[in-house]
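Troubleshooting: if your tokenizer reports a length mismatch, compare your output against this known-good record of 283 residues.
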Amino acid sequence: MSEIKKQWYVIRAVGGKENKVKEYIESEIRHNHLEDYISQILIPTEKVYTIRNGKKISKEKVSYPGYVLIEAAFVGQIPIIIRNTPNVLGFLGDVVQIALSGTTGLGSMLSGLLNTGYNIYSGNRQYEASRADNQWNQQMQEKQYQDKQNQQLYENEFNEREYRDKLNQQQFNNDVTNQKLNIALGEWNLKKSTAAQKASQAGGSASGSRAGSSGTGSTGTGSSTYTGAGLGSTGSGSGSVTVPYTAMLMRSQGRSDSSITGALQREGYSNAEIAQILQQMKR
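Known-good structure output:
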């Protein structure tokens, strides 16, 4: 659909009722959906300043009382609606033609009126464009701010995950270190126990050899006795026993005789030797 050609026209209105005329025509435009035929209604105004109580006060004043500018396509019902508007006295016609011809005696005034109307129209367009630019800039700033917030949130979450990963890795390393320490401690205790058992057995053997070399014997039906500090004895001798390290350790831990017996059996002690060891620890 081609654009409807419009022109500027001057409406003669009752002085002081210019805004009422504008409001009524705008209401009719909305009610009858005539936006395509009437695009602008302008009342040329100017800002005047007065001094009141020593203060400078500004207010809007109608530049040309009794005149309203309208940009419209005068087709169909448009002229009728405007003529029937309350406080409208009539048309002065196309503002450009009136300003150029000067036949009505209003040429110079309407030329100024036209310039004022176009200046208002241009100012309104510039204001709307500036307002749209400000809204766009504000939206862009809000979007940039939101993007920064999202980026900061992502970085915070990433740093938190990285920190948790480091803590988990450190905990894992500590667990591995503790396991290695426990294994090393067990191996060290095993070596100490083995060394103590070997030392105990060596001491018992040496003590038994010294006691055998100094013993007394008899012929006939006599009996020979063997005493010593070894773990075993022969005959009816009543020698003392050396208590192994394992037995002493388990006793210090409050372990029962059955537990100690089982441990000594696994180390190769006989039941007789174990009985002597338990008896020795009870003294």
